[in-house]
Amino acid sequence: MSPEEFTETPYDYVVIGGGTAGLVVAARLSEDPNVTVGVLEAGDDRLDDPLVDAPNLFLQLWDKPEYDWSYKTMPQKGTEGRVHGWVRGKVLGGSSAVNYNMFSMASRQDIDNWEELGNNGWNFDGLAPYYRKFERYNASSKVLSSKINDKYIDPQLRGTDGPIQVSFCDADTTWNQEIWPETALNAGYPTPKDPRTGSAIGGFNQLTTVDPVTMRRSYSARAYYEPNKDRSNLSVLTNALVSKIDLEKIGSADAKATGVYFIVNGTTHHVKANREVIVCGGVVNSPQILELSGIGSPEILSRAGVDVVVELPAVGENLNDHSATGISIKVKDEYPTAEVLFRNPEIAQQAMEAYLHHKAGPFTNAPTTCGFISLELLDPQLQDAQKHIQSLVAEYRKLHPDADPGGRDTLLARQLMDPKEAVTQFVLLTVGADIRNCDTPSKVFIQDEPGNWIILATCSTRSLSRGSIHINSSDPTKYPTIDPNYFDHPLDLDMAARSVVHALKLTEYEPLRSALDLNADGQVQFHPSTGATGMPQTLEEAKKLAAANTVTEYHPIGTCAMLPREKGGVVDNHCKVYGTSNVRVVDASIFPTHVQGNIVSLVYAVAEKASDIIRGKIVNGTNGTNGTKM
Q: Which range is the signal sequence, renumbered to this chain (predicted)?
């Protein structure tokens, strides 16, 4: 479709961004044949691209302009002044097309926090049906189940007929998948339960977004767009960069969106929107588009040369990301890791041919080994944990009295004390890393040290540090300024340090212990890039190790937060932008607080629920007007 053909139709709904959430919204709205839906996507259509389809080739997509926006942060004081590269999918399907395929679940309290902060209807029970709606759970074969111990899954809690395929890979298993659950149990972790129960404490192999029949990535373009692309009332235009929303404001009335301006090959076009404009650009692009359109802080807009249409200072604020601290450790030669593929082009080519022709081999198997650990498991020696946490929160509040108008820190600090809640997500990856290359994500896992390596990664679950994303120009092609503010809050670094110490203690337990290549003194061998010469002996040493080895987990949220306006909100509980009559935001940028684990499942669930809100199936945040939960 040409841009001229696209603009011939005045759509009822114009969706900005054909990514993870945008294609869900477009597919659901276009189920009604009486409405028209137009989608504008800055990237290209990469359906049937083997680099996207292969579950374990995602590293080949990063830093390539045909797949990745390749954003970079400002230098981060909390991580030794490093710049961090941010992979964000610039392709139909968005970041669901370039992620790790790991499939986690928010905890009950994670989502109940949202309602407690003032978002009526946004709670765990209200969102649970939408998890099931998008999901198609595929049970493992008996052989695979016995290898990876997936018995914690409760099929009764899982969706069975949704568009997103969820499974464990049956084509190939790796040694770490087989030893990880037993290592976790030997370390004293409880037998895990299905995270759909609302808690995920324990170590296990987690599900992936992979179709077990085709062995292809299951993502929003494949699941929501491809089956519906021939609908006469759905139009998708790719390679179209949105420059701003066309807003009409008369007097004191709310601003009304009448259309969208977008650029194709250097030429600006305009498309009309009869009912609504729905922004699904993601955590970076959604606040950028609002600010380019004149919605935001007057000071920021003025500095960028944009006229103010709606004064909404919270746009672009509340940026919150999962930090990931990765420590690389040497394993024995008989335990294969990704270094085998990186260093031997012939073997890599054989693996690619195995995937293309037989849907087998290492490229079929996305990462699965992870765990979620409560504070009492993480550091049982911590004396008076509640007092310790409260003191760090109070210390930060004294220095930044206006940093948390919504009271989120109090909720999150309270959550740390709950034994059913995780303070850390552990991930074991069979590849080494050089964190010093974190400004270029595709180079992080490329390192020259001989031997085979694994990463023991400790990832935050709900950081208290918050940053911002703001435009610095009225030019839509100029990237905004990204400042995640890693480790700005002392509690984040404190928990990261304790997590690193705990992760390294896991090396003492079998069967993981037997896989490690120990030195002559029987000690773990650290990758030289970590800066570690041995196990940290004090919390301060662990903090330095964490600061030197931390990167993003690629889970930013919050820049268009769903909160009451007076608490720093950008959208209400119907996802509508304050000060507008018909502009909504639907993507991870509306998450008011962070949640544990990989967030793609929550993005799908939120987009499904938001679609019902837009269609009038949910009133006042609940199912119908009687306030009953779904």
A: none
Tally of domains within the chain:
1
pLDDT, tens digit (0-9, with 9 covering 90-100), for 574-615: 999 999 999 999 999 999 999 999 999 999 999 999 999 999
Beta pairing class for 234-237 and 85-86 = unpaired
Whether pLDDT at 629 is above 50: no
438: containing domain? 141-212+320-555
Two structure tokens written together for 271: 């498309």
Q: Over 70: is that where the pLDDT of 554 sits?
A: yes
Cβ proximity of 260 and 246 under 8 Å: yes
pLDDT band at 621 (very low <50, low <70, confident <90, very high): low
- What pLDDT digit, counting tens, does each position of 209-259 carry? 999 999 999 999 999 999 999 999 999 999 999 999 999 999 999 999 999
What pairs with residue 424 in β-bridges? 373, 460
Is residue 567 packed enough to be buried (19+ CB in 10 Å), middle (13-18) or exposed (0-12)? middle
Let me know how long the chain is: 630
Residue 580 belongs to some domain of the structure: no
Percentage helix, strand, coil for the chain under 3-state DSSP, each rounded to 5: 35, 20, 45
Question: What pLDDT, in 10s, does the model give residues 509-544?
Answer: 999 999 999 999 999 999 999 999 899 999 999 999
- CB proximity list for 52: less than 8 A, separation 6 or greater: 46, 61, 67, 91, 93, 97, 98, 217, 219
- Residue pair 497/543 in contact (Cβ under 8 Å)? The answer is yes
CATH of the domain at 478: 3.30.560.10
Other beta carbons less than 10 A from residue 538's beta carbon: 10
Residue 162 near residue 134 (C-beta atoms within 8 A): yes
pTM across the whole model: 0.97
β pairing state of 164-166 and 202-205: unpaired
387 is a domain residue:
yes
- CA 130 – CA 227 distance, rounded (Å): 20
Residue 312 burial (CB < 10 Å; 0-12/13-18/19+)? Answer: buried
CA dihedral 486, 540, 513, 437 (to 10 degrees): 40
H or E element that contains 293: none
**Are the beta carbons of 307 and 294 closer than 8 angstroms?**
yes
Does the structure show a pLDDT above 50 at 449? yes
Q: Is position 514 within any domain?
A: yes
Q: How far apart are CA 119 and CA 603, in angstroms?
A: 17
Cis amide bond preceding 511, omega within 30:
yes
Ligand-binding site membership of 242 (annotated):
yes
